[in-house]
Structure formats: C-alpha cells, structure tokens
Amino acid sequence: MTTCASSVTYSPRQRWAAGLKKSVPVAMGYLPAGIAFGVLAQVAGVPLWASMMLSVVLYAGAAQYACLPMLTAGMPIGSIATNIAAINLRHIFYAMPLMSALPKARLPRTYCLFALTDETFSVLTSLPHAEREQLFVPISFYNHMWWVLATLIGSSIGGALGELIPHLDFALLCLFAILAYEQFANIQRYFPIVIAAFAFVIASLLTEHWVLLLAIGICLLLILARGMVQPEIQGGHHDQ
Prior knowledge:
The chain is mostly helical and about 240 residues long. About 75% of the residues lie in helices and about 0% in strands. It has two domains: about 10-190, no CATH class; about 190-240, no CATH class. The protein starts with 11 loop residues before the first helix and ends in an 11-residue tail after the last helix. About 25% of the residues are buried.
C-alpha cells in the first residue's frame, strides 16, 4: 500500500515552483559565500570569465576556494586537478543513496550527478522518495544558478565588499550546519553523527593535510563494517 505522503505528484510547472521554494534556504548561504568567492577571485587577479567558468563547470565551493591560491601560484593543471579531485571525493558517496531517485534520461541524470553538492544532497535526502525523484532536477538546477549568480555579483563588485564585510565565506559552513541539523531533526539517527565525529578526531590525529580525505575513508569503513555486523532490520517493515 502506498501512503498519501508518497503519492505526491507534481505537474512540470509545479515541479519547478516547488524546487525553487526548496532551494531558497540554500540560496541564503550560497549568495554570500558565492559573492565572497567572486570577490576573492577578483582580488587574486582571476578574470571574470574565468571565475564564471569555475562556478559553471567546477561548481564546488570548497574546491573553488582552494583553487584560487593554486591558480595565482601558477601550479600545473595536473596538480590542481589532483587536489580538487581529493576535495570532491566525498561527492561519490553522496550519489549512492540517491541512485534510485535520479532521472532516467541520460542528460538530466548526468547533470544531476554533476550538480550534487553537499547542500543539494542535504535538501534531497530530507524529502520523501517520490518528491525527491520529481524535484531532483529543479533543486539541482536552482542551487547551481544561485551559486553562479553570486559569483557574478562578487566578481563584478570586486574587493571593496571584502573590506566592508570580511569572512563572507563562513556563510557556507553555517548553511551546511543548519541543513545537517534539519536533516537530523527529520531522520533522528545518531549513528552518522557519531561516526563523523569519531572519524574527524582520528583523522586529525593522524594527518594535517589530508584530514577530509582520511575522515571520509574512515566513515566509509565504519559504515561497511556496521552493515556487515548488524543484520538489516528493514525486512519487517515491508510486511506492514
């Protein structure tokens, strides 16, 4: 039997309207953080077209911030690509629980995988599966456009805003913390928080330069170990 919550059906126009509404909280963080990136890129001497290209093609907040000093230092493209790949490795794991909700058509499916950021993942996983499947493309697109728009504004304003309002990039961290809390309030599961905290502490003790990568690896191992030791308990739910 299907519940009423899982039978929500949107028309194409309603999908884009609902996706816009769901993306507004992300915009509140993306706008100041994206503007900060545009300002920092302009101060670093990165031309506007290159800043826009990074936000359109790369579209990864932390990686884009990390990319600026590497570009200004004249690092080889291979080294820059390796560092960016290490920072964005976590996105591979984001796609796994959302595979069943991805669009079936190749082009939308590819775009959604490309545009799956931390904040988009958090918003999508807080939705019922039926709604998640219908809003995957609109939410991904709107979030992407918020970031591109913010980059354009920041690159156009220049360094003056950075002097008036310092530490704009901190807004992205605040946004992710809020989205993580909202997701926890909906799911009420402590295990992800416990393993994330544990993995971060262990990684911090073992390395200084690869904390994120090592913490992701530890989290993955703990999740796999839990799945092997603890039998799945969802079988009984299917009989209800």
